[in-house]
Amino acid sequence: MKTLLISLLATGLLLTSCATSSRIQALKPEPGNTTDVVYQKSTSFISLPVSIAVADLETQTNKFVTGLVYEDNNIKDDDVTLKVWKTAPIKFSEKNGRLQIIIPIKVNGNVRYGTTTMGIDLHDTREFNLAANITFDSSIGLRNWQMTTDTKLQNLEWTESPSITVAGKKIPITYLINPTIKLFKTRIEDELDNAIKQSVDFKPQVLDALETLSKPFLTSEQYETWFQLMPEELYVTDAKLNKKQITMNMGLKCTMETTVGQAPKAVLKKDAVVLKAVSSMPEKVSAVVAAVSTYQSASAIITKNFQGQEFGDGKRKVTIQKVDLWSKDGKMIVALEMMGSITGTIYLSGIPNYNAVTKEIYFDQMDYVLDTKSALMRTANWMASGIILKKIQENCRYSIQANLEEGKKSMLPYLNNYSPMAGVFVNGTLDDFEFDKVTLTDNAIIAFIKGSGKINLKVDGMK
After folding, report:
1. Which of 314, 309, 318 is nearest to 344 (CA)?
2. What is the CB neighbour count within 10 angstroms for residue 38?
3. CA 403, 409, 412, 414 torsion: positive or negative?
C-alpha cells in the first residue's frame, strides 16, 4: 500500500511538472569559420612639430669646424701667404629671424714687399701674426632632408690692424690683407654651410625611426593582437628661427592596422620614402586602439547581468542560468540557457554596437534565430513577445571602460618627456577616445576606438 502511494505521488508530481514546464528544442547555429581579421585601412596624419635649440646647432657645428680652416701657400699671385685657424668655439645667436655666427680666428702669414728694378729683385718677406673676430649672417632652410644655410661674411673686426715691422717701424699692410679676405671668407662660408648641413642631417635618424615604427608589435599575447603603422609619405614645412629655436613641422601620412592572428609582415621600403615640402601641417595626431574581448570573458560578464532576474508574464517565468557567445556570418549569436516555465537553450542574433555614454558594447537589432522562434511558437509563444526580448536585450551588454583606460595608459609613457635618443624628447597630450567600429573574429570581439592628441619633438642637449 505504501509503495503504491509513493508511485501515485511521483506520477502526480511528474504530471504537474509537465503541465507547468516544457522543454524547448532549437537547433544550435554553428560558429562561423572567421579567419584573421584586418581592420579596414584608413589614412592617418601624425604631426610632429620639431624644435632644435640654436645652442645644439652651435655644439654640433663646432665638432665639424676645427683647427685650420684656410691655407694659401702661393706668395707669387698676391704677395701674401695665409694660414687661418679657429681659436675658440664658434658662437651662434639669433637676430631678426636670422642666424648670427661669430668665429674667432688666428692668422699666420707672410707678406712680400719691395720692387724689382732693372731685373734686380729688391723684395723682402716678413712673417706676421694677427687675430680677428669674423661675424657671419645666415638664413635657415631645409632641403633634401638636411638643414641648409646661406652664410655670408658680415663683418671682420681685427683685434690689431694688420702691420709688419720694418726698420723698427710698423708699416700697415691692410691694403694687402683685405683683398685676401675675399679668398678665405668664401672658404669659411662654405665650411660653415657644410658643417651645419652635416650637423643636422635628418635622413638617417628619420628613416631608422620609421623602420622601427613600422615593425608590427604584439599588443596582446593572449588574444594574438598586433598593431602596425605603415608610413606612406613624410612632409616638412620651412625651417624658421625665432627665440633661440629653429622650428619646423614634420608630418607623417600613414595607415594604422590592428590585426588578430598571425604577425603581419613589415613592409617599409626606406629608399622609397620621399620628403615633401608643404606650407602647413595639421596639428592633431590620430591613433586607433583595439579593445579586445574574448567571447569567454564577455559571456561571463553578461551571465552576471542576468543573476537574480526573472523574465516572463504572470506565472510563466524563466531565469537565465548561463550565456554563451560566438560569431556567425558577421553577427553575434547569444545562447541563453534557461530554467523555469521553459527549460533548454534559446538562440538570439544581433549586431554588436557601442554606447559612447556608458562605454558599453551592446547588441543591436537583436532577434530570435529563425529555428528558435519556430520552436517558441510551438512550445511557449509568450516567450516570443517583443517585450520579453527587449528586457533580455537590455542585459546583453558589457563595459569596455577598463580596455579604454588600459589603451590610453599604455600610450602615456611615450608622451611624457620620452627620449628615444640622447638630446631628443617627445611630449604630448591624448584626448578621450571615440568609438569607430566593432569587428567580430572567430575568438574575440574587437572594438576599434579612435583617439586624438598633440605631439611635439624637441632637440635639446644633443650630443
Report:
1. 318
2. 15
3. negative
Residue 308, sorted as left (phi over 0), alpha (psi -120 to 50) or beta, turns out to be left
- Domain span at residue 102 reads 55-199
Domain count, the chain: 1
User: Looking at the DSSP assignment, which residues form a beta bridge with residue 85?
Assistant: 68, 106
CATH code of the domain covering residue 168? 3.15.10
- Count of CB atoms situated within 10 Å of the CB of 394: 12
Phi and psi, residue 430, nearest 5°: -130, 125
Using CB atoms within 10 A of its CB, is residue 135 exposed (0-12), middle (13-18) or buried (19+)? middle
d(CA 361, CA 187): 69
pTM over 0.90: no
DSSP structure class, residue 262 = S
Mean pLDDT of each 10-residue bin along the chain, 463 residues long: 36 37 82 60 72 86 86 82 89 90 87 60 71 89 79 84 72 72 79 82 73 76 72 84 84 73 77 80 70 83 90 89 91 93 93 86 90 87 86 87 68 74 75 78 80 73 60
